[in-house]
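Changelog-linked ticket: adenosine-5'-diphosphate example.
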Amino acid sequence: MIRAVFPGSFDPIHNGHIDIALRASKLVDELYVAVYDKPLKSFLFSPQERIALVEGVFKGYPKITVVGYSGLTVKFCKKIGAQVIVRGLRVFSDFEYEFRMGLANHRLEPDVEVLALMTSEEHTFLSSTTVREIASLDGDISSMVPKAVEQALIRKFTELGDNHPVVLTQSTRD
Ligand code: ADP
C-alpha cells in the first residue's frame, strides 16, 4: 500500500494545489494533504484556518486525509508510515528549490521518495502569494480558488482593513 504526503503552507489553498493533490491521489492508495505550521513564517491565515479551508476542498474524497504538522516533513512521513512526498512543479525556479529539498530529504530519510508532478498548463502562474496579493487589492480571484477560499480571503481582508503588511510576506519561492 502506498501512502503519500502532499506538504505545503496552503496560505491559502488554490486551484494549482488542488490539481496536484487530485492527480497524485490517483497514483497512490492514500494521500495526506499536510498543512505546514512554520513557526518562522508569518501567514495570512492561522494553521486552523488553513486546515479548515483544505478540509472543505477535499471532504468528498475518501482517499484524501487533511492533517496539520510541524517539524521536518520526512519525520512526519516516517511517523505516519508514508513512503512518498508529493510536490508540484511550476517554473524552473521551482525545480531548483525542489531538487535541493528532495536531495536533502533523501539524505535524511533514504526510504522516502519524492514524486514531483508538473503543474497543469492553466495553473502555471498560480501561487498563494499571487492569490493573496490580488485579493488584497480587491481583484477577481474566482478562477483561481474555490468559492469558500475566495469568501475567506474577502472576510480576512475586510477584517484587516487597509493595514495588511502580512500580504507582502513572500513564500520561500514565490
Ligand atoms: P511551500 O511553502 O511548501 O512551498 P506551498 O503551499 O506554496 O507550500 O506549495 C505546496 C506545493 O504545491 C509545492 O510543491 C508547490 O510547488 C506546489 N504548487 C504551488 N502552486 C502550484 C501550482 N500552481 N501548480 C502546481 N504546483 C503548485
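Closing comment: Example verified and attached. The chain has a mean pLDDT of 92. The chain is about 40% helix and 20% strand.
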